[in-house]
């Protein structure tokens, strides 16, 4: 009986091993190339993997993922190209083998999108990106909103000069307190109910606010837990009831300058605006004028701007606008596009892990379309 059980176990084990090996033989290796220094000619744009980044990712990858890296593409075929700004020549070089373009950060660069469309790859090439920094961006959005609502930096500035007038003690001769917006019981509008917008909505709901949102894919009004989600077409009807507005949409042809003078004038008196999207989503002149007038718009917290440093040499002397001096306005909280938390250890570890997880999933399923965060090339997000 013992010999019979041993023989049976040996047969079963041999079958399982053979099946595993057969499955591995059927599963082809996923060939991945990390394009380094692919900035599209702009050295301060996006993120490019260093040798240390690639090594860290490789330590997390399965044996089915074969990795190359460098400024030049390998002579062998490439299944997945990890790059944000590939050139036409580079895409032509791998056109017959490439199955996916992996943008290693949030967003989809418009020049790359246009290049893919011009080359006719938009119908066959799978494009994905990352949402690894959505928690960081959402947290900064809320921080900017709170700082603007409570005029934190203006009160800080006054107290640093020993001026307590912002407190507003009700005594003769004491000025009126520095105004603040109470959030509880008010309405928050989240424009763009994606990975960032959903997190912002949950936080604002916890403050006791009624939360409304717009989502590009919504075709009708629907309730998502504590948030009422509307189609984009409802934005105009939502602005008049929004005490604080968070812009969390990607930059596309449909969102460019989606808020201008007309839209800002629809906001109720004493409202606050936060932009962690892209500068072009919010009309610059309209924003500046509204902040100067201080009628409907009480304050704003802005993380994305209209003018950026071209190179690392310019980071200490580049204004956020070449037309309007936002720095002189006390009712705008200015942030130098920190929402992505680029370069911070926690963010970069999250980025590397997210890249590895996506590539492992594609290798395991033998399908690049198994990778999360797919980008619709036509829509641009």
Question: How do the helices and strands line up, and which of them pair or pack?
Answer:
Blueprint: H1 2-26, E1 30-35, H2 51-58, E2 65-70, E3 80-82, H3 88-93, E4 100-102, H4 110-118, E5 126-128, H5 134-150, H6 152-160, E6 187-191, H7 195-206, E7 210-214, E8 222-224, E9 227-230, H8 235-238, E10 244-247, H9 261-265, E11 271-275, H10 284-293, E12 297-302, E13 332-334, H11 345-365
Parallel strand pairs: 1-2, 1-3, 3-4, 4-5, 6-7, 6-10, 7-9, 10-11, 11-12, 12-13
Antiparallel strand pairs: 8-9
Helix pairs in contact: 2-11, 5-7
Task: Describe this structure in a few short sentences.
Helix content is 33%, strand content 15%.
Q: What is the tally of beta strands?
A: 13
Radius of gyration (Å): 26 Å
Low-confidence stretches: 19-25, 40-44
What's the end-to-end separation, in Å?
64 Å
CATH class (first level) name of the largest domain: Alpha Beta
Which term fits the overall shape?
Answer: elongated
Number of domains: 2
Main beta sheet strand tally, sense and closure: 8 strands, mixed
Overall average pLDDT: 90
> What order do the helices and strands follow?
HEHEEHEHEHHEHEEEHEHEHEEH
Corresponding CATH architecture of the largest domain? 3-Layer(aba) Sandwich
Give the strand line-up of the largest sheet.
8-9-7-6-10-11-12-13
Overall SS class: alpha/beta
Helix share bin = 25-40%
By CATH, the topology of the largest domain is Rossmann fold
User: Superfamily at the CATH H level of the largest domain?
Assistant: NAD(P)-binding Rossmann-like Domain
Task: State which percent range the strand residues make up.
Answer: 5-15%
* Number of H- or I-type helical stretches: 11
Signal peptide: 1-22
Organism: Hanusia phi
Pfam families: 2-Hacid_dh_C
Protein name: D-isomer specific 2-hydroxyacid dehydrogenase NAD-binding domain-containing protein
């Amino acid at each position: 009986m013992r010999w019979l059980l041993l023989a049976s176990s040996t047969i079963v084990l041999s079958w399982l091993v053979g099946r595993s090996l057969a499955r591995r033989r059927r599963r082809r290796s996923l060939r991945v190339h990390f394009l380094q220094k692919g900035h599209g000619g702009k050295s301060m744009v996006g993120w490019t993997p260093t040798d240390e980044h690639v090594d860290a990712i490789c330590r997390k990858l399965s044996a089915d993922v074969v990795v190359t890296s460098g400024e030049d593409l390998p002579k062998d075929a490439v299944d997945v190209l990890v790059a944000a700004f590939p050139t036409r020549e580079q895409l032509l070089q791998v056109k017959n083998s490439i199955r996916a373009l992996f943008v290693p950060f949030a967003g989809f660069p418009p020049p790359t999108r246009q290049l893919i469309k011009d080359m006719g790859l938009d119908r066959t090439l799978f494009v994905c990106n990352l949402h690894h920094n959505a928690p960081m961006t959402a947290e900064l959005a809320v921080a900017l909103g709170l700082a603007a609502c409570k005029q934190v930096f203006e009160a800080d500035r006054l107290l640093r000069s020993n001026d307590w007038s912002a407190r507003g003690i009700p005594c003769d001769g004491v000025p009126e307190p520095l105004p603040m917006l109470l959030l509880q019981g008010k309405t928050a509008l989240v424009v763009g109910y994606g990975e960032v917008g959903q997190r912002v909505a949950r936080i604002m709901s916890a403050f006791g606010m009624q939360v409304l949102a717009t989502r590009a894919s919504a075709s009708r009004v629907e309730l998502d837990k504590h948030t009422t989600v509307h189609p984009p077409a409802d934005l105009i009807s939502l602005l008049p009831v929004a005490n604080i507005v968070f812009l969390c949409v990607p930059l596309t042809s449909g969102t460019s300058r989606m808020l201008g003078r007309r839209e800002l004038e629809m906001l109720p008196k004493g409202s606050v605006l936060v932009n962690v999207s892209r500068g072009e989503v919010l009309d610059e002149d309209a924003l500046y004028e509204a902040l100067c007038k201080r009628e409907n718009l009480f304050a704003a917290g802005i993380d994305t701007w209209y003018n950026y440093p071209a190179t690392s040499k310019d980071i200490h002397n580049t204004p956020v606008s070449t037309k309007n001096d936002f720095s002189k306005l006390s009712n705008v909280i200015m942030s130098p596009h920190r929402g992505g938390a680029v370069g911070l250890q926690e963010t970069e570890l999250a980025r590397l892990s997210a890249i590895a997880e996506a590539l492992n999933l594609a290798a395991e399923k033998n399908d690049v379309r198994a990778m999360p965060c797919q980008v619709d090339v036509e829509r641009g997000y």
